[in-house]
Automatic annotation (TrEMBL):
The keyword Transcription regulation applies. One of its GO terms (molecular function) is DNA binding. In the C-terminal section; belongs to the class-I pyridoxal-phosphate-dependent aminotransferase family. Keywords: DNA-binding, Pyridoxal phosphate, Transcription, Transcription regulation. CDD domains: AAT_like (cd00609), WHTH_GntR (cd07377). This is Transcriptional regulator, GntR family. PROSITE patterns: HTH_GNTR. It comes from Asanoa ishikariensis. InterPro entries: Aminotransferase_I/II_large (IPR004839), HTH_trans_reg/aminotransferase (IPR051446), PyrdxlP-dep_Trfase (IPR015424), PyrdxlP-dep_Trfase_major (IPR015421), Tscrpt_reg_HTH_GntR (IPR000524), WH-like_DNA-bd_sf (IPR036388), WH_DNA-bd_sf (IPR036390). Residues 19-87 form the HTH gntR-type domain.
Length: 451
Protein backbone atom coordinates (compact mmCIF):
# COMPACT_ATOMS: atom_id res chain seq x y z
CA UNK A 1 0.00 0.00 0.00
CA UNK A 2 1.55 3.32 -1.04
CA UNK A 3 0.72 6.46 0.94
CA UNK A 4 1.84 10.08 0.37
CA UNK A 5 1.73 12.83 3.02
CA UNK A 6 2.43 16.03 1.10
CA UNK A 7 1.20 18.24 3.91
CA UNK A 8 3.94 17.14 6.28
CA UNK A 9 6.74 18.67 4.29
CA UNK A 10 8.22 15.28 3.62
CA UNK A 11 7.11 12.60 1.20
CA UNK A 12 6.63 9.15 2.70
CA UNK A 13 6.24 6.34 0.21
CA UNK A 14 5.86 3.24 2.33
CA UNK A 15 4.93 -0.19 1.08
CA UNK A 16 3.67 -2.11 4.10
CA UNK A 17 2.80 -5.77 3.44
CA UNK A 18 -0.58 -7.10 4.49
CA UNK A 19 0.87 -9.62 6.96
CA UNK A 20 3.06 -8.64 9.89
CA UNK A 21 2.04 -4.97 9.82
CA UNK A 22 4.36 -3.77 12.61
CA UNK A 23 7.44 -5.56 11.29
CA UNK A 24 6.59 -4.43 7.76
CA UNK A 25 6.24 -0.80 8.85
CA UNK A 26 9.56 -0.94 10.71
CA UNK A 27 11.31 -2.36 7.64
CA UNK A 28 9.77 0.25 5.36
CA UNK A 29 10.85 3.12 7.62
CA UNK A 30 14.37 1.70 8.06
CA UNK A 31 14.73 1.37 4.29
CA UNK A 32 13.56 4.94 3.72
CA UNK A 33 16.00 6.28 6.33
CA UNK A 34 18.98 4.21 5.17
CA UNK A 35 18.41 5.13 1.52
CA UNK A 36 18.26 8.84 2.35
CA UNK A 37 14.63 9.33 1.28
CA UNK A 38 13.92 10.34 4.86
CA UNK A 39 16.64 12.82 5.78
CA UNK A 40 17.82 13.66 9.32
CA UNK A 41 15.42 16.07 11.03
CA UNK A 42 12.43 15.12 8.87
CA UNK A 43 9.27 15.02 10.98
CA UNK A 44 7.07 11.95 10.74
CA UNK A 45 3.27 11.96 10.89
CA UNK A 46 1.58 11.52 14.24
CA UNK A 47 0.81 7.93 15.10
CA UNK A 48 -2.95 8.50 14.78
CA UNK A 49 -2.60 10.05 11.32
CA UNK A 50 -0.28 7.33 10.02
CA UNK A 51 -2.51 4.63 11.44
CA UNK A 52 -5.55 6.01 9.61
CA UNK A 53 -3.69 6.37 6.32
CA UNK A 54 -2.29 2.82 6.47
CA UNK A 55 -5.43 1.26 7.86
CA UNK A 56 -3.69 -0.27 10.85
CA UNK A 57 -4.05 0.13 14.61
CA UNK A 58 -2.54 3.23 16.21
CA UNK A 59 -0.80 1.00 18.80
CA UNK A 60 0.96 -0.80 15.94
CA UNK A 61 2.36 2.48 14.61
CA UNK A 62 3.34 3.61 18.12
CA UNK A 63 5.15 0.31 18.75
CA UNK A 64 7.00 0.62 15.43
CA UNK A 65 8.05 4.19 16.27
CA UNK A 66 9.21 3.11 19.75
CA UNK A 67 11.29 0.29 18.26
CA UNK A 68 13.00 2.60 15.78
CA UNK A 69 13.64 5.17 18.54
CA UNK A 70 15.30 2.40 20.58
CA UNK A 71 17.41 1.43 17.57
CA UNK A 72 18.51 5.03 16.99
CA UNK A 73 16.72 5.64 13.68
CA UNK A 74 14.20 8.10 15.17
CA UNK A 75 14.10 10.63 18.00
CA UNK A 76 10.99 11.54 19.96
CA UNK A 77 10.55 14.64 22.13
CA UNK A 78 7.43 15.77 23.92
CA UNK A 79 5.90 18.61 22.00
CA UNK A 80 8.19 18.16 18.98
CA UNK A 81 6.85 14.93 17.58
CA UNK A 82 8.94 12.16 16.06
CA UNK A 83 11.80 13.01 13.71
CA UNK A 84 14.46 11.14 11.76
CA UNK A 85 17.72 10.88 13.72
CA UNK A 86 21.11 11.84 12.32
CA UNK A 87 22.88 8.58 11.50
CA UNK A 88 26.58 8.11 10.77
CA UNK A 89 27.39 7.83 7.08
CA UNK A 90 26.99 4.31 5.72
CA UNK A 91 30.08 2.19 5.40
CA UNK A 92 31.49 2.09 1.88
CA UNK A 93 30.46 -0.94 -0.09
CA UNK A 94 33.47 -2.85 -1.29
CA UNK A 95 33.24 -5.45 -4.02
CA UNK A 96 33.28 -8.96 -2.65
CA UNK A 97 36.73 -10.48 -2.71
CA UNK A 98 37.01 -13.42 -5.00
CA UNK A 99 37.76 -16.57 -3.00
CA UNK A 100 41.37 -17.67 -3.21
CA UNK A 101 41.79 -20.40 -5.76
CA UNK A 102 43.48 -23.35 -4.07
CA UNK A 103 46.45 -24.87 -5.88
CA UNK A 104 45.90 -28.07 -7.77
CA UNK A 105 48.44 -29.77 -5.52
CA UNK A 106 49.41 -28.44 -2.08
CA UNK A 107 52.75 -29.46 -0.57
CA UNK A 108 53.12 -26.50 1.76
CA UNK A 109 54.19 -27.40 5.30
CA UNK A 110 52.27 -26.78 8.51
CA UNK A 111 49.21 -29.03 8.28
CA UNK A 112 48.51 -32.73 8.62
CA UNK A 113 46.24 -34.63 6.27
CA UNK A 114 42.96 -33.44 7.77
CA UNK A 115 41.03 -36.05 5.81
CA UNK A 116 42.57 -38.54 8.24
CA UNK A 117 40.75 -36.94 11.21
CA UNK A 118 39.26 -39.79 13.30
CA UNK A 119 35.68 -38.56 13.11
CA UNK A 120 34.11 -41.84 14.25
CA UNK A 121 36.45 -42.17 17.24
CA UNK A 122 35.91 -38.49 18.12
CA UNK A 123 32.12 -38.96 18.08
CA UNK A 124 32.36 -42.07 20.28
CA UNK A 125 34.56 -40.19 22.71
CA UNK A 126 32.16 -37.23 22.78
CA UNK A 127 29.22 -39.50 23.53
CA UNK A 128 31.11 -41.18 26.36
CA UNK A 129 32.24 -37.85 27.77
CA UNK A 130 28.81 -36.23 27.72
CA UNK A 131 26.68 -39.24 28.68
CA UNK A 132 27.21 -38.73 32.41
CA UNK A 133 28.47 -35.14 32.44
CA UNK A 134 26.85 -33.08 35.21
CA UNK A 135 25.00 -29.87 34.42
CA UNK A 136 27.96 -27.87 35.77
CA UNK A 137 29.95 -29.04 32.75
CA UNK A 138 28.14 -26.47 30.64
CA UNK A 139 28.84 -23.58 33.01
CA UNK A 140 31.97 -21.41 33.04
CA UNK A 141 35.02 -23.60 33.54
CA UNK A 142 38.45 -23.54 35.12
CA UNK A 143 41.03 -21.31 33.37
CA UNK A 144 43.57 -24.12 33.91
CA UNK A 145 41.44 -26.52 31.88
CA UNK A 146 39.08 -29.33 32.81
CA UNK A 147 40.52 -31.66 35.48
CA UNK A 148 39.70 -34.74 33.38
CA UNK A 149 41.83 -33.57 30.46
CA UNK A 150 44.68 -32.37 32.66
CA UNK A 151 44.82 -35.77 34.37
CA UNK A 152 44.69 -37.63 31.04
CA UNK A 153 47.43 -35.40 29.60
CA UNK A 154 49.67 -35.93 32.62
CA UNK A 155 49.48 -39.68 32.09
CA UNK A 156 49.91 -39.55 28.32
CA UNK A 157 52.78 -37.07 28.25
CA UNK A 158 54.71 -38.96 30.91
CA UNK A 159 54.20 -42.26 29.13
CA UNK A 160 54.85 -41.13 25.55
CA UNK A 161 57.04 -38.01 25.72
CA UNK A 162 58.90 -38.47 29.01
CA UNK A 163 57.36 -35.29 30.46
CA UNK A 164 57.19 -34.91 34.24
CA UNK A 165 53.65 -33.59 34.41
CA UNK A 166 51.33 -33.25 37.40
CA UNK A 167 47.77 -32.16 36.52
CA UNK A 168 48.17 -29.07 38.70
CA UNK A 169 51.08 -27.92 36.52
CA UNK A 170 49.12 -28.18 33.25
CA UNK A 171 47.16 -25.34 31.65
CA UNK A 172 44.96 -26.16 28.66
CA UNK A 173 45.12 -23.48 25.97
CA UNK A 174 43.33 -22.64 22.75
CA UNK A 175 46.15 -24.02 20.62
CA UNK A 176 49.91 -23.49 20.59
CA UNK A 177 49.71 -19.83 19.58
CA UNK A 178 47.85 -18.89 22.75
CA UNK A 179 50.31 -20.82 24.91
CA UNK A 180 53.22 -19.01 23.26
CA UNK A 181 51.56 -15.62 23.72
CA UNK A 182 50.81 -16.29 27.40
CA UNK A 183 54.41 -17.26 28.10
CA UNK A 184 55.97 -14.51 26.00
CA UNK A 185 53.89 -11.91 27.79
CA UNK A 186 55.72 -12.74 31.02
CA UNK A 187 59.19 -12.04 29.59
CA UNK A 188 61.06 -9.08 28.13
CA UNK A 189 63.60 -10.69 25.77
CA UNK A 190 62.90 -13.97 23.98
CA UNK A 191 65.40 -15.81 21.77
CA UNK A 192 63.91 -17.69 18.83
CA UNK A 193 65.45 -20.09 16.35
CA UNK A 194 66.84 -18.63 13.14
CA UNK A 195 65.44 -19.84 10.80
CA UNK A 196 62.03 -20.34 12.35
CA UNK A 197 58.38 -19.57 11.77
CA UNK A 198 57.88 -15.84 11.19
CA UNK A 199 54.32 -15.94 12.48
CA UNK A 200 55.48 -17.18 15.86
CA UNK A 201 57.96 -14.30 16.07
CA UNK A 202 55.07 -11.93 15.42
CA UNK A 203 53.06 -13.58 18.21
CA UNK A 204 55.90 -13.03 20.67
CA UNK A 205 56.33 -9.39 19.64
CA UNK A 206 52.60 -8.70 19.96
CA UNK A 207 52.78 -10.11 23.48
CA UNK A 208 55.26 -7.34 24.29
CA UNK A 209 58.59 -9.18 24.21
CA UNK A 210 61.65 -8.35 22.14
CA UNK A 211 62.81 -11.13 19.82
CA UNK A 212 66.47 -11.94 19.26
CA UNK A 213 67.70 -14.57 16.77
CA UNK A 214 69.34 -17.81 17.84
CA UNK A 215 71.29 -19.50 15.00
CA UNK A 216 70.51 -23.10 14.00
CA UNK A 217 72.84 -25.61 12.37
CA UNK A 218 72.76 -29.35 11.67
CA UNK A 219 72.84 -30.07 15.43
CA UNK A 220 69.88 -27.85 16.22
CA UNK A 221 69.73 -24.46 17.89
CA UNK A 222 73.01 -22.95 19.10
CA UNK A 223 71.99 -22.96 22.74
CA UNK A 224 75.65 -22.51 23.66
CA UNK A 225 75.30 -18.92 22.40
CA UNK A 226 72.48 -17.93 24.76
CA UNK A 227 73.32 -14.87 26.83
CA UNK A 228 72.23 -13.81 30.30
CA UNK A 229 70.35 -10.84 28.84
CA UNK A 230 67.81 -13.25 27.33
CA UNK A 231 64.89 -14.21 29.60
CA UNK A 232 63.44 -17.10 27.59
CA UNK A 233 64.15 -19.16 24.50
CA UNK A 234 61.69 -20.91 22.17
CA UNK A 235 63.02 -24.23 20.86
CA UNK A 236 61.77 -27.09 18.68
CA UNK A 237 64.22 -29.69 20.02
CA UNK A 238 62.57 -32.87 18.74
CA UNK A 239 62.41 -31.69 15.12
CA UNK A 240 63.61 -28.16 14.37
CA UNK A 241 61.37 -26.30 12.00
CA UNK A 242 62.20 -25.84 9.18
CA UNK A 243 65.70 -27.42 9.01
CA UNK A 244 64.58 -30.71 10.58
CA UNK A 245 67.46 -31.27 13.03
CA UNK A 246 67.07 -32.81 16.48
CA UNK A 247 68.75 -30.85 19.27
CA UNK A 248 72.08 -32.55 20.01
CA UNK A 249 72.72 -33.86 23.55
CA UNK A 250 75.43 -31.25 24.21
CA UNK A 251 73.03 -28.49 23.14
CA UNK A 252 70.36 -29.90 25.48
CA UNK A 253 72.79 -29.77 28.38
CA UNK A 254 73.82 -26.26 27.40
CA UNK A 255 70.28 -24.90 27.48
CA UNK A 256 69.63 -26.48 30.86
CA UNK A 257 72.87 -25.02 32.24
CA UNK A 258 71.99 -21.61 30.77
CA UNK A 259 69.32 -21.07 33.43
CA UNK A 260 66.57 -19.08 31.66
CA UNK A 261 63.13 -20.34 30.73
CA UNK A 262 62.98 -22.86 27.87
CA UNK A 263 59.70 -22.83 25.92
CA UNK A 264 59.74 -26.30 24.38
CA UNK A 265 57.55 -26.44 21.27
CA UNK A 266 56.85 -30.15 20.79
CA UNK A 267 54.65 -29.64 17.75
CA UNK A 268 55.13 -33.07 16.13
CA UNK A 269 57.13 -35.06 18.68
CA UNK A 270 55.08 -38.23 18.12
CA UNK A 271 56.18 -38.51 14.49
CA UNK A 272 59.65 -40.01 14.42
CA UNK A 273 60.24 -42.82 11.95
CA UNK A 274 63.70 -44.35 12.21
CA UNK A 275 63.90 -44.81 15.97
CA UNK A 276 62.04 -44.01 19.18
CA UNK A 277 60.91 -40.36 19.48
CA UNK A 278 63.38 -38.12 21.28
CA UNK A 279 62.24 -37.44 24.83
CA UNK A 280 61.27 -33.94 25.88
CA UNK A 281 63.87 -31.62 27.39
CA UNK A 282 61.32 -30.93 30.12
CA UNK A 283 61.86 -34.43 31.47
CA UNK A 284 65.35 -33.54 32.71
CA UNK A 285 64.64 -29.96 33.87
CA UNK A 286 60.95 -29.52 34.75
CA UNK A 287 61.54 -26.30 36.71
CA UNK A 288 63.29 -24.63 33.78
CA UNK A 289 61.12 -25.78 30.89
CA UNK A 290 57.58 -24.85 29.85
CA UNK A 291 56.58 -27.78 27.66
CA UNK A 292 53.98 -26.92 24.99
CA UNK A 293 52.04 -29.51 23.02
CA UNK A 294 49.05 -29.50 20.72
CA UNK A 295 46.58 -31.72 18.90
CA UNK A 296 47.03 -29.73 15.68
CA UNK A 297 49.33 -32.23 13.98
CA UNK A 298 48.00 -35.46 15.49
CA UNK A 299 44.29 -34.70 15.03
CA UNK A 300 43.75 -31.39 13.26
CA UNK A 301 44.31 -27.66 13.77
CA UNK A 302 40.56 -26.95 13.75
CA UNK A 303 40.27 -28.31 17.30
CA UNK A 304 42.31 -25.42 18.81
CA UNK A 305 43.46 -27.57 21.73
CA UNK A 306 46.90 -27.13 23.23
CA UNK A 307 48.55 -27.53 26.61
CA UNK A 308 51.52 -26.23 28.53
CA UNK A 309 53.27 -28.01 31.40
CA UNK A 310 54.72 -25.31 33.61
CA UNK A 311 57.41 -24.82 36.23
CA UNK A 312 55.74 -24.22 39.58
CA UNK A 313 56.64 -20.52 39.64
CA UNK A 314 54.77 -19.85 36.37
CA UNK A 315 51.51 -21.66 37.09
CA UNK A 316 49.67 -18.76 38.73
CA UNK A 317 50.94 -16.05 36.34
CA UNK A 318 49.95 -18.10 33.29
CA UNK A 319 46.56 -19.02 34.76
CA UNK A 320 45.88 -15.36 35.52
CA UNK A 321 46.92 -14.34 31.99
CA UNK A 322 44.72 -17.07 30.55
CA UNK A 323 41.78 -15.91 32.67
CA UNK A 324 42.02 -12.42 31.19
CA UNK A 325 42.53 -13.66 27.63
CA UNK A 326 39.54 -15.94 27.03
CA UNK A 327 38.71 -17.16 30.57
CA UNK A 328 39.01 -20.81 29.60
CA UNK A 329 39.26 -23.10 26.59
CA UNK A 330 35.95 -24.59 25.49
CA UNK A 331 35.05 -27.61 27.61
CA UNK A 332 33.28 -30.05 25.27
CA UNK A 333 36.40 -30.55 23.17
CA UNK A 334 38.48 -30.94 26.32
CA UNK A 335 36.24 -33.71 27.65
CA UNK A 336 36.19 -35.43 24.27
CA UNK A 337 39.99 -35.40 24.01
CA UNK A 338 40.24 -36.68 27.59
CA UNK A 339 38.00 -39.62 26.68
CA UNK A 340 40.02 -40.26 23.53
CA UNK A 341 43.22 -40.35 25.60
CA UNK A 342 41.95 -42.55 28.45
CA UNK A 343 40.40 -45.06 26.03
CA UNK A 344 43.76 -45.24 24.16
CA UNK A 345 41.99 -44.50 20.88
CA UNK A 346 44.28 -41.49 20.62
CA UNK A 347 47.33 -43.81 20.81
CA UNK A 348 45.90 -46.04 18.11
CA UNK A 349 45.21 -43.07 15.88
CA UNK A 350 48.74 -41.68 16.35
CA UNK A 351 50.27 -45.08 15.52
CA UNK A 352 48.19 -45.31 12.35
CA UNK A 353 49.09 -41.73 11.40
CA UNK A 354 52.78 -42.35 12.04
CA UNK A 355 52.69 -45.40 9.77
CA UNK A 356 50.90 -43.45 7.06
CA UNK A 357 53.28 -40.48 7.20
CA UNK A 358 56.32 -42.73 7.22
CA UNK A 359 55.04 -44.34 4.01
CA UNK A 360 54.66 -40.87 2.54
CA UNK A 361 58.18 -39.94 3.63
CA UNK A 362 59.53 -43.10 2.00
CA UNK A 363 57.64 -42.40 -1.21
CA UNK A 364 59.05 -38.87 -1.25
CA UNK A 365 62.60 -40.23 -0.99
CA UNK A 366 61.90 -42.76 -3.74
CA UNK A 367 60.41 -40.26 -6.17
CA UNK A 368 63.19 -37.72 -5.53
CA UNK A 369 66.04 -40.20 -5.58
CA UNK A 370 69.26 -38.34 -6.21
CA UNK A 371 67.97 -35.01 -4.88
CA UNK A 372 69.39 -33.72 -1.60
CA UNK A 373 66.60 -34.15 0.96
CA UNK A 374 67.14 -33.20 4.60
CA UNK A 375 65.20 -33.42 7.84
CA UNK A 376 63.33 -36.61 7.02
CA UNK A 377 63.93 -38.58 10.23
CA UNK A 378 60.83 -37.06 11.82
CA UNK A 379 57.89 -34.76 11.32
CA UNK A 380 55.69 -33.96 8.35
CA UNK A 381 58.05 -31.88 6.22
CA UNK A 382 61.34 -32.15 4.37
CA UNK A 383 63.91 -29.58 3.25
CA UNK A 384 65.21 -29.54 -0.32
CA UNK A 385 68.32 -27.29 -0.43
CA UNK A 386 68.88 -25.37 -3.65
CA UNK A 387 72.39 -25.09 -5.13
CA UNK A 388 74.23 -21.76 -4.60
CA UNK A 389 74.42 -21.16 -8.34
CA UNK A 390 70.66 -21.23 -8.84
CA UNK A 391 67.87 -21.56 -9.54
CA UNK A 392 66.59 -19.26 -6.80
CA UNK A 393 63.65 -19.97 -4.50
CA UNK A 394 61.57 -17.34 -6.25
CA UNK A 395 62.21 -18.86 -9.67
CA UNK A 396 61.30 -22.37 -8.53
CA UNK A 397 58.21 -21.23 -6.64
CA UNK A 398 56.99 -19.21 -9.62
CA UNK A 399 57.40 -22.18 -11.93
CA UNK A 400 55.70 -24.45 -9.38
CA UNK A 401 52.75 -22.07 -9.11
CA UNK A 402 52.47 -21.96 -12.90
CA UNK A 403 52.12 -25.74 -12.85
CA UNK A 404 49.56 -25.72 -10.04
CA UNK A 405 51.90 -26.83 -7.24
CA UNK A 406 52.27 -24.97 -3.92
CA UNK A 407 55.51 -25.37 -1.93
CA UNK A 408 57.07 -23.72 1.11
CA UNK A 409 60.22 -21.63 0.98
CA UNK A 410 63.16 -21.38 3.36
CA UNK A 411 63.72 -17.67 2.73
CA UNK A 412 60.70 -16.38 4.65
CA UNK A 413 61.85 -18.13 7.82
CA UNK A 414 65.03 -16.13 8.42
CA UNK A 415 64.86 -13.30 10.94
CA UNK A 416 66.53 -10.85 8.56
CA UNK A 417 67.10 -10.74 4.83
CA UNK A 418 70.59 -11.51 3.66
CA UNK A 419 72.79 -14.00 1.89
CA UNK A 420 71.19 -17.13 3.37
CA UNK A 421 71.08 -20.68 2.00
CA UNK A 422 68.02 -21.22 -0.16
CA UNK A 423 65.70 -24.17 -0.23
CA UNK A 424 62.20 -25.55 -0.62
CA UNK A 425 60.10 -26.93 2.23
CA UNK A 426 57.87 -29.83 1.26
CA UNK A 427 54.94 -30.63 3.53
CA UNK A 428 54.23 -34.26 2.78
CA UNK A 429 51.53 -34.41 5.45
CA UNK A 430 49.31 -31.81 3.78
CA UNK A 431 47.66 -33.43 0.73
CA UNK A 432 45.09 -36.18 0.88
CA UNK A 433 46.17 -39.78 0.37
CA UNK A 434 44.68 -39.93 -3.13
CA UNK A 435 46.43 -36.77 -4.39
CA UNK A 436 49.83 -37.28 -2.80
CA UNK A 437 51.44 -39.50 -5.49
CA UNK A 438 50.44 -37.12 -8.29
CA UNK A 439 51.77 -34.18 -6.26
CA UNK A 440 55.14 -35.93 -5.91
CA UNK A 441 55.26 -36.71 -9.61
CA UNK A 442 54.71 -33.04 -10.39
CA UNK A 443 57.41 -32.04 -7.88
CA UNK A 444 59.89 -34.46 -9.43
CA UNK A 445 59.23 -33.12 -12.92
CA UNK A 446 59.58 -29.57 -11.64
CA UNK A 447 62.96 -30.23 -10.02
CA UNK A 448 64.21 -31.92 -13.19
CA UNK A 449 63.11 -29.02 -15.37
CA UNK A 450 64.75 -26.32 -13.23
CA UNK A 451 67.96 -28.20 -12.49
Amino acid sequence: MATDWADWGVDLHLDVPAGGRRAGLERALRTAIRSGRLTPGSRLPATRTLAVELGIARNTVAAAYDQLVAEGYLTARTGSGTTVAALPPPSPVFPALAPAVPPRFDLRPGSPDVSFFPAAAWLRAARRALADAPAATYDYGDPRGHPALRAALADYLGRVRGVLAHPDRIVVTSGYVQALALLAGLHRVVAMEDPGLAFHRAVVRRAGARVVPLPVDTHGARTDLLESTVDAVVLTPANQFPLGAALAPARRRAVVDWGGLVIEDDYDGEFRYDRQPVGAVQGVAPEQVAYVGTAAKTLGPALRLGWVVLPERLVEPVVEAKRHTDYHTEVIGQLTLASLLTSHEYDRHVRAARSRYRARRDLLLTRLRGAPVRGVAAGLHALLPLPPGGPTEAEVLDEAARRGLALGDLGSHWHFTGDHPQGLIVGYGTPSESRYPAALDLLARLLTSVA
